[in-house]
Design a protein that fits this description.
358 residues; alpha/beta; Isopropylmalate Dehydrogenase; two-stranded antiparallel sheet; 11 helices; 12 strands; binds 3-isopropylmalic acid; binds magnesium ion
Length: 358
C-alpha cells in the first residue's frame, strides 16, 4: 500500500482550525479508500513562532519538508506582525524556492450556495484561474532609500522572464485543453504597461500555436472584472500575472458565494519539489478561536492535493461529499449566512465519506 507524507503547516489565525479539519477529512478518506495511507507531520511555523524565534520558520525549514509528497497550508498573517514579513517569511519562502510557479484557483458555485450575481445559479460559472506564482509583481525586486526624508524613494519592480511566461502559458493552455470547453482568456494590461506585458501577449500568441484546439482571447484586466460580473458564462480557463490573478481570484471567490470556500494549489508541475495546497481566505483574526471558520476551502484544497498525488478516486469522493454537505443549509457557517460550526461541517463531510452511496 502506498503511504504519502504530508507536511501540515497551519500557520496563523483560523489556519489551525481549518487545517486540523482538513487532516481529519484526509485521514477519513484514506481509511475509506483503503488503497493508501497518509503520514502527517505538523509544523508550528507562523506568527507565534516568529514571536519566539524572530523568524516565521526555522532556517532549515525547507529541508524539513522538501521530501514530503505535499504540503497542506493554513494561512500566514498576524495582527502584531507586518504583513510583508509574515508573507515573505513563510508562504513565499516556500512557494518561490520550491518553484511552485503555477497557482491554480478553481471557482464554482457549489450546490446550496447563492451567488451575489442575479440570475447566476451554478452552471454559468465554472472557472479555473491560473496565477503566475513565481515572478511578476511578486518578484520582490525593488528598494527603499532615504527613509523618512523628503527625498525618500521606494520601488517595487515587476519582473517577467521569457522562461517564466512560456511555462505558465504552456501550463494554462494545457489546462484549458483538458477541460470540455477548451477556452482560455489571457489577461493583460499591455495598453499601459508597454514592455513586460507586451512580451506576455506575444508569448501567449506563440504558445497558442502549440494548442490548435484551444480557443483563446486576450482581455485587459480592468475589462476582465466587468466580464466576470456581466458575462460569467463566457469564461472558462484564465491566465494572469501574479497580482492580476490575486485580485481577480478574490472577485471570483466572492461571485461564487464566499471566500470561505475557495481553494488553491501552488503547483511545481515538474514535481522536483512538493506542491502546496491552501484555502485562499487567509488568517481571519476576527473569527479566530470561535470555531466558526468555514473548512470547505481547505477540503476543496485537499481534493486538489489528492488529485496531485494521483488519488483521483478519493479526490472525487471528497468533492462529492463537499457538494452534498454545502447543499444542506444546516451545514452553512456564518460566512454563508448559517450558524454551523467548523466541527459540524467536518463531521457532515466525514459521515458522507463513510456513507454507502458515495
Ligand atoms: C492570496 C493572498 C496572498 C497573496 C496574501 C495573503 C499575501 O491574498 O493567496 O491570494 O496576495 O498572494
Ligand atoms: Mg489574494
Amino acid at each position: 500500500m502506498k503511504t504519502y507524507t504530508i507536511a501540515a503547516i497551519p500557520g496563523d489565525g483560523i489556519g489551525a482550525e481549518v487545517v486540523s479539519a482538513g487532516v481529519e477529512v484526509l485521514q477519513a478518506l484514506a481509511k475509506r479508500d483503503g488503497g493508501f495511507k497518509l503520514t502527517v507531520d505538523h509544523f508550528d511555523w507562523g506568527g507565534d513562532y516568529y514571536k519566539k524565534h524572530g523568524t516565521m520558520m526555522p532556517e532549515n525549514g525547507r529541508d524539513l519538508i522538501k521530501l514530503h509528497d505535499a504540503i497542506l497550508f493554513g494561512s500566514a498573517g498576524h495582527p502584531d506582525i507586518p504583513d510583508h514579513i509574515t508573507l515573505w517569511g513563510l508562504r513565499l519562502a516556500i512557494c518561490q524556492p520550491f518553484d511552485q510557479y503555477a497557482n491554480v484557483r478553481p471557482t464554482r458555485i457549489l450546490p446550496g450556495i447563492t451567488s451575489p450575481l442575479r440570475n447566476v445559479h451554478g452552471p454559468e460559472l465554472d472557472w479555473m484561474i491560473v496565477r503566475e506564482n513565481s515572478e511578476g509583481e511578486y518578484a520582490g525586486v525593488g528598494g527603499r532609500v532615504h527613509r523618512g526624508l523628503p527625498l525618500e524613494v521606494a520601488t517595487d519592480v515587476s519582473i517577467l522572464t521569457r522562461a517564466g511566461v512560456e511555462r505558465i502559458m504552456r501550463f494554462a493552455f494545457k489546462l484549458a485543453q483538458s477541460r470540455p470547453r477548451k477556452l482560455l482568456t489571457v489577461v493583460t494590461k499591455s495598453n499601459a504597461q508597454r514592455h513586460a506585458m507586451v512580451m506576455w501577449d506575444e508569448i501567449a500568441s506563440e504558445i497558442a500555436v502549440e494548442f490548435n484546439d484551444v480557443t483563446w482571447d486576450k482581455m485587459l484586466v480592468d475589462a476582465m472584472t466587468m466580464r466576470m460580473v456581466m458575462k460569467p458564462e463566457s469564461i472558462d480557463t484564465v491566465v494572469a500575472t501574479n497580482l492580476h490573478a490575486d485580485v481577480l481570484s478574490d472577485l471570483a471567490a466572492a461571485l461564487a458565494g464566499s471566500v470561505g470556500i475557495a481553494p488553491t494549489a501552488n503547483l511545481n508541475p515538474e514535481r522536483t519539489f512538493p506542491s502546496m495546497f491552501e484555502p485562499i481566505h487567509g488568517s481571519a483574526f476576527d473569527i479566530t478561536g470561535k470555531g466558526i471558520a468555514n473548512p470547505i476551502g481547505t477540503f476543496w484544497s485537499a481534493v486538489m492535493l489528492l488529485d496531485h498525488l494521483g488519488e483521483a478516486k478519493a479526490a472525487k469522493r471528497l468533492m462529492t461529499a463537499i457538494e452534498r454537505t454545502t447543499a444542506d443549509k444546516r451545514f452553512h457557517t456564518p460566512d454563508l449566512g448559517g450558524t454551523a460550526k467548523t466541527t459540524d461541517v467536518t463531521a457532515a463531510v466525514i459521515e458522507t465519506i463513510h456513507g454507502a452511496n458515495i
